[in-house]
Amino acid sequence: MKCLVINLDRSTDRLAHVTAEFERAGVAFERMAAVDAQALPDLGSMPVRKRPVSQTRLTDGEIACLLSHRACWSAIAAGDDSYVAIFEDDVMLSEKTGPLLADLGWIPADADIIKLETFLHRTIVGVKQVAAGHGFSASRLYDVHMGSAGYIVSKKAAGALLGATQEICLPVDHVLFNSKLETSPGRVIYQLRPALCAQEQILGREGVKFPSLLKQDRQELLASRGVRQRPRASLYNKVRREFRRLSLQFADLCRLRQWMIVPFDYRGTRIRRPHTQRRQNAL
Length: 283
Hints:
Elements: E1 2-7, H1 12-25, E2 30-33, H2 60-78, E3 83-88, E4 91-93, H3 97-101, E5 113-115, E6 122-126, E7 130-133, E8 136-140, E9 150-154, H4 155-164, H5 172-177, E10 189-193, E11 197-199, H6 213-224, H7 235-254, E12 257-261, E13 264-266, E14 269-271
Parallel strand pairs: 1-2, 1-3, 5-10
Antiparallel strand pairs: 3-9, 4-11, 5-9, 6-12, 7-8, 8-10, 13-14
Helix pairs in contact: 2-4
């Protein structure tokens, strides 16, 4: 399978990292030059619609990230490959990446996008699993599961994504994996289980080499606008939230869906979500 890796020209350390990961997995890739927000100061003046929920404008970094993925979608839509894998340059890859991506036969016929990544946050997937070989399976993804560091997209879906993002208003991971939003009507999305990759920043290690650049942009933007973090919920609200969660979980079980944290195995170790990790948007 053809693999594209998004990388900034100035991020030579990340290119060295991702090159080593792909070489270890025995997979070739084609580098796609990322759009650099620092090199395009006019991004701030682009016509960008505010986010539907928070009514805040995307940061320059978020706009550049979306434009980088759009460049990949454009190349895929104009190319001859029926499916192409897209990765960001901070991914950690499973040892089984090579064998899995060497064969397209396991991809479900109705799949538009297959999420290869996990963000180690709970999501909802279908109980039914499609065998992908090498210890993997694919299940329908029915809930938000953030992160755009690794996914497979069909040629048809790439064209649809281009059309859906002519007006910029959402971060790329919401465009891809938030089925509740207007950018993804009728799109069939699968989740690979266990995940094939994860971002280096979420593996729970000390001294993260590649912290999220977009997260820093968001924090600076919120701080400049005086936006504070949400206060801690009261005991009543916590109990109410837990009751609602259990009710929804039971309803999903009746619809043959299950709540789970998609696991990831890296170099023989099952990666667990750190207890101190808070829910945040993937970048």
